Amino acid sequence: MTTLAERLRQPGLIVAPGVYDMVSAKLADAAGFDALYMTGFGVVASHLGLPDAGLATYTDMVGRVRQIAEGTATPLIADGDTGYGGLLNVDHTVRGYEAAGAQAIQIEDQEFPKRCGHTPGRRVIPLADAARKVKVAAEARASKDFLIVARTDARTAHGLDEALRRGEAFLKAGADILFIESPESVEEMERIGRTFGVPLLANMVEGGRTPLLGRGELEALGYKVAIFPVAGLLAAAGALQALYAHIKAAGSSRDWDGTLYPFPDFVRMIGFERVWAFERAHPEEPS
Length: 287
Description:
- Strands 6-5-4-3-2-1-8-7 form an eight-stranded parallel beta sheet.
- The chain is 48% helix and 12% strand.
- It is of the alpha/beta class.
């Protein structure tokens, strides 16, 4: 399969759905995307049942990176938050994510504890400190094909000019992909695209601060990567809520008129066919 670094040099928008557990990862992997995005918001919510507010640790996240990377074939972009600490922590995080099988890591410039990029209360560290984090991240990787996605959250509190200034500094520090978080209009997105001649990432959050655009619109604005971090999570949560309400009211799922993933297909998707083949090849002897 084409690596993310190779795909980045090819024409066309890279669309990456958010994955947060192995079911979402396997379904997205089978759909034929160019990349998957391991969403910190979704992993923290599904794994810990907590908000994406700096509560997950490096250990929580790198284990999920390894699990998803080993269980899929599609290149994985993984959310590394702030690097889980200072410069030494960033070095350790980048090395760990790369060894776990990710092909790119996202590092952001928020103060700890960080926040989801489409929620209030985000604060950023000084620009010089943020650029040093990006520089350390770029130096820590074993291969230049492991990509550094440098994200700034400065737009919301400090305005677009400061976010653009940080983007320039992150490029000089060694970033491969720029992620200007939470532009609030198409005009702002257009300005970002005009400012940088490098791969840009758009964060498409349903109900978030940034306009939700289509493939052609994003390409025309100059974006190279579009992530949809919570679309799958929100779809699953909506379906579960509706189904559980029906079971509670009816006492059964029999008359449910929503869409259920066919049980035989799910059994195959999750890997039972290998189990059955193994059991046929290695039958248990009666005791």
